[in-house]
């Protein structure tokens, strides 16, 4: 049949199912002037599966494994082989239907395996991704600080502090000092006011008798007079 008879007003007849369909329902083919092949997409998929099964049989002597039917709202995880509801799969905007390919347990295991293979562990991955340094640079900076928190001097600090505006690493702090800077929003003015406040309200020891002291707060008036 000539091409003129094969195409009608933007439609084409599939050579397998013999049905007339719009051109966008045919597979792409760069060798055709209109960029579409001779078989509709369902028929082309059947041909591809049959061709794959034939090659597998001839080259490896194996049959194509038939996958079990998956009910609506479910997906089969290729790692564990279980069919689970879509809610058991992580969200993925680029994935089919908005969900990832692997179920959540398998997804987590693959993530751990990938971090271990590429970075040597989760901590190295976390440091590289968030701060741009690794465990080696962390230990070098900690050694420069003498192995203690850069603010309070407590031993074995574990938190890498950075400037939230520039992303630059500033030092290594203990949990309390790192959290304290975060609560003050890294604002020197707030910290200076806090220092002034503490200096003006800190309880002080006042000598009231030889060898006897009384705790006094400036916010409660003047220190009591020494006893006679």
Briefly characterize the structure.
The protein is an alpha+beta fold and 228 residues long.
Structure description:
This protein is of the alpha+beta class and 228 residues long. Among the domains are: 3-60, Wheat Germ Agglutinin (Isolectin 2), domain 1 (2-Layer Sandwich); 76-116, no CATH class; 132-186, His-Me finger endonuclease fold (3-Layer(aba) Sandwich), CATH 3.40.1800. It is 36% helix and 18% strand. It is built from 7 helices and 11 strands. The protein has helices spanning 3-6, 41-60, 104-119, 122-131, 135-144, 175-183, 188-201, and strands at residues 7-8, 11-13, 20-22, 26-28, 36-40, 74-76, 83-85, 159-162, 169-173, 204-209, 212-216. The strands form 5 sheets. Strands 1-2-3 form a 3-stranded antiparallel beta sheet. Strands 4-5 form a two-stranded antiparallel ribbon. The protein has a two-stranded antiparallel sheet with strand order 6-7. The chain is elongated. The model is unreliable at 1-5 (pLDDT under 50). This is Recombination endonuclease VII. It comes from Micromonospora auratinigra. InterPro entries: Endonuclease_7 (IPR004211), Endonuclease_7_sf (IPR038563), His-Me_finger_sf (IPR044925). GO terms for molecular function: endonuclease activity. Keywords: Endonuclease, Hydrolase, Nuclease.
